[in-house]
Amino acid sequence: MTSNKHLLLLGTHDTHIHAVIFNSEARTLTRGASTVASKQPSWLARHPDSNLKDLVYVNGWVEGKLFVYRLLDDQGRLELLSEVSSGGKGPTHLDILPDGSGMFIAHYVSGTVTFHPLDEQGLFTRQAPLSEHIFTPSHSPLKHHRQEHAHVHQIVLHEEEILVPDLGSNKVWRLKWTGKSFDVVGEISGLEDGDGPRHCVVHPEGTHIYVVNELSSQLTIHTLPKDGPSQLINRFSMLPEGDKAESRPTGASEIILLPPTRPGGPLLLITSNRDSPVFETDTLALFSVSSTDGADVRRTEKGWMEGIGRHLRGVGADESGKWVAVLGRDGGGLKIFERNDRDGLDLNEVTRLEVENTVIPLWVN
């Protein structure tokens, strides 16, 4: 595939994985192949080894399974290689160790984290995780009706830690993998009752963590010390004026942190909102982050991108950080934005494609 053509794979809330091709020169989107998969293949990840980049790992949320596919061509055709039990209910998110020796899986329904080893070819070595490879967080029921049980939402591998937002427990766990089991080394401090942490990202310097809280629609910024407790630095509402966090079935969803567009320039932090009870479409919230001081977070001059779509669940950027894909599951389809202005803190829509029920974009190239 030429440098101006980019292949994206789109996970869905139905039973398909769709491929689309974005031509950055012509600024067009065209459909590629569609693959019938398990029910709700809602998260996709690639193998970290450059020699195994044709392997794509997919969850099966409804069936509690994991799948590994081989990418066959530049139209996004996929060949199923194997499937296994994820070891929990509602596998929602996964991440693979940098050396490719295994993956960690977050389960929303059972509230657990599991580990699955991989062989040198990137294939699963077991049909289900060992019991000692399952982490079940401690939990006490909270006031919010979605916090009666643990609901683990994401896996973020940071240095030697595994950061795990747990919406139900109202915590971001800090775990370590010993090679045989999980150790709890701490948690991120400063979350308030009813925040409901969903996803997070870490500053490139490793000093701060940014948490998108689904229930409160708040972005929280915390220190991330190597030793000792973290501290809350700041919090921002992710909602534009007139919108509100209550009376919505779901709230804040995704968070991504994009590199500077010029040396010494700021990073762009994007978070997405869903299911506004006030407006017909949902918004992206835009923040500027210092590349040298992770505590320096500000709203961009524009602040929000409005009128994009409904239920903005999936947001993802290409490797360069120039192009941003946004998915409206319940309206708006797929839209591609280009970062513009001197600091790359604004987004300009360049093309769109109607595609239904999509929830996660994976940029292949």
How would you describe the overall organization of this protein?
- The protein is mainly beta.
- Helix content is 0%, strand content 50%.
- It contains no helices and 27 strands.
- It has strands spanning 5-12, 16-23, 28-36, 44-46, 55-60, 65-71, 78-85, 91-96, 102-107, 113-117, 134-135, 156-158, 161-166, 171-177, 182-187, 197-202, 208-213, 218-223, 232-237, 255-258, 267-272, 282-289, 297-317, 323-331, 333-340, 346-353, 358-363.
- The strands form six sheets. A seven-stranded antiparallel sheet has the order 20-21-22-23-24-25-26, with no helix packed on it. A four-stranded antiparallel sheet has the order 3-2-1-27, with no helix packed on it.
- It is globular and about 50 Å long.
- Belongs to the cycloisomerase 2 family.
- InterPro entries: Cycloisomerase_2, Haem_d1_sf, Lactonase_7-beta_prop, WD40/YVTN_repeat-like_dom_sf.
- Pfam families: Lactonase.
- GO terms for molecular function: 6-phosphogluconolactonase activity.
Summarize the structure.
Pfam families: Lactonase. The protein has 365 residues and is mainly β.
Tell me the layout of helices and strands.
Blueprint lengths: L4 E8 L3 E8 L4 E9 L7 E3 L8 E6 L4 E7 L6 E8 L5 E6 L5 E6 L5 E5 L16 E2 L20 E3 L2 E6 L4 E7 L4 E6 L9 E6 L5 E6 L4 E6 L8 E6 L17 E4 L8 E6 L9 E8 L7 E21 L5 E9 L1 E8 L5 E8 L4 E6 L2
